[in-house]
Amino acid sequence: MRILIIEDEPRMQDLIRQGLYERGYTVMTAGDGETGLELARAHEFEALVVDIGLPRLDGYALVHALRTSSWSTPVLILTARDAEDDIIRGLDLGADDYLTKPFSFAELVARLQSITRHQGWSNARIIEAGDVVVDPIQRSVTRNSLPIGLTRQEFLLFMSLLRHPRQCIPRKTLIESVWGSESTVGTSALDVLVNSLRSKIDNPFPTKLIGTVRGAGYVFQEPARETKGLP
Fold it and tell me: What Å distances lie between residue 15 and 19, 53, 152, 178, CA to CA?
């Protein structure tokens, strides 16, 4: 499960990140609301953990911005604000749950499991891009009706490209999408993964979908207007 933590207090951010990592989660982090919003829109997550008192863009505004753009990934607000009005406001804006600090880590994990179980993945719809069909829930991919078996890392990479057709995605962004923001993986590992993905998605077919932007990154070459099912 991929989680984005948007928390400006470094010690709290590290505590949550490490605790979730030890339980098998893939975690990315942001220390302010604007960066968190950019990451949420650029990557695939199964849930967000959002503080309220964030610099640059507070948690309420962040949740509102996501929900008004039809972005449906589950959001758990985690904050020290425990007034009833604060809780009601957060839920009314579209948060799926509200947990106050101090908190039990076991309860945090239980609540994340609950909202992801009930809400599903943010992009749970079937995605169609030309002759490619992707089911994000089953993590299955077909091309020209032929099933294509992708590893977990290949699937995460492919989804990161598929979300932004005909846009160059920088290598750094793709590395964070696959291995997390704390990863020390280099660009050579990404290039190897791209080649592995191409061997399954592109090589058996005449039309190539994964392009290279020299010195910058990679791009999904299918026209954006033909991609259906993405927010």
Answer: 6, 18, 26, 22
Neighbouring C-beta atoms of residue 171, cutoff 10 Å: 18
User: pLDDT band for position 220 (50/70/90)?
Assistant: very high
Radius of gyration of the chain (CA): 18
Q: Which domains does the chain have, with CATH numbers?
A: 2-119 (3.40.50.2300), 127-228 (1.10.10.10)
Counting beta carbons within 10 angstroms of the beta carbon of residue 24, is it exposed (0 to 12), middle (13 to 18) or buried (19 or more)?
Answer: exposed
Residue 169 to residue 32: CA distance in whole angstroms: 22
pLDDT digits (tens, 9 = 90+) for 193-203: 999 999 999 99
What confidence tier does 124 reach under pLDDT thresholds 50, 70, 90?
Answer: very low
Is the C-alpha dihedral spanning 14, 17, 21, 26 positive or negative? negative
Place of tokens 């299918």: 222
Q: Please give the backbone phi and psi of residue 88, each rounded to the nearest 5 degrees, phi first.
A: -60, -40
3-state secondary structure of 154: helix
C-alpha to C-alpha distance for 96 and 103, rounded to whole angstroms:
17
Asked if 123 contacts 231 with a C-beta cutoff of 8 angstroms, the reply is yes
Alpha-carbon distance of 123 to 70, in angstroms, equals 11
Q: Which residues contact 62 (CB under 8 A, 6 or more apart)?
A: 6, 33, 36, 37, 40, 50, 54
